[in-house]
Design goal:
Layout (H helix, E strand, L loop, with lengths): L1 H8 L4 H22 L2 E7 L11 E5 L5 E8 L3 E8 L3 E8 L5 E9 L3 E4 L11 H27 L4 H12 L1
Antiparallel strand pairs: 1-4, 2-5, 3-4, 5-6, 6-7
Length: 171
């Protein structure tokens, strides 16, 4: 493992870097398929309602696209967990006892993956994507700094060094 980490940040070993990027990309795609089967819609419970039955959940659908899996209520929020049944688009509306409405546009894609808004919207487990992107940028930055330091020793004023330093400052 320690040797692999050295290979990742080595600026001359492009295969290890590409393998890391591919592994993180597959990890992101796997998280979509693993966690994306359900979605939890939450609304605030700022009025302090205590009866879960006073909240109503309305799913506007002609055919079964989405089904309610679980509902929960605590002092701060009301949550409804839904699961995709078949591909399509629906609107899920949560109505609290004071007649406030929250509308969630939900899209269910093939393999019953549930997104809120669009395919680039929100889904369960979407936190892994910015974390993976940050790891890739950090590794890329470390590789660029190491490459710059090696090339700087050879010749200070090469165009490549100036470009690399500009990219390092930008990242």
């Amino acid at each position: 493992m320690k040797n692999y980490l050295k290979r990742i940040i080595d600026p001359n070993d492009k295969k290890a870097f590409l393998a890391t990027v591919a592994m993180l990309l597959l990890f992101c795609i796997g998280s979509v398929f693993l966690f994306g089967k359900t979605y939890t819609c939450t609304v605030p419970n700022d009025k302090g309602f205590e009866d879960i039955e006073t909240y109503s959940v309305v799913i506007e659908q002609d055919q079964p696209i989405l089904e309610t899996v679980d509902r929960s209520l605590n002092q701060k929020q009301f949550s409804v967990k839904v699961r995709g049944v078949s591909p399509g688009s629906v609107f899920l509306t949560v109505i609290d006892p004071s007649e406030r409405h929250w509308i969630f546009p939900i899209d269910v894609y093939p393999s019953n993956i549930v997104f809120r808004d669009t395919i680039f919207g929100d889904y369960t487990g979407d936190e892994i994507i910015p974390v993976s992107f940050t790891i890739i940028l950090a590794v890329l930055l470390i590789r660029m700094i190491r490459n710059y330091r090696e090339e700087y020793r050879k010749d200070r004023y090469r165009y490549r060094n100036i470009r690399d330093l500009g990219l390092i400052i930008f990242l």
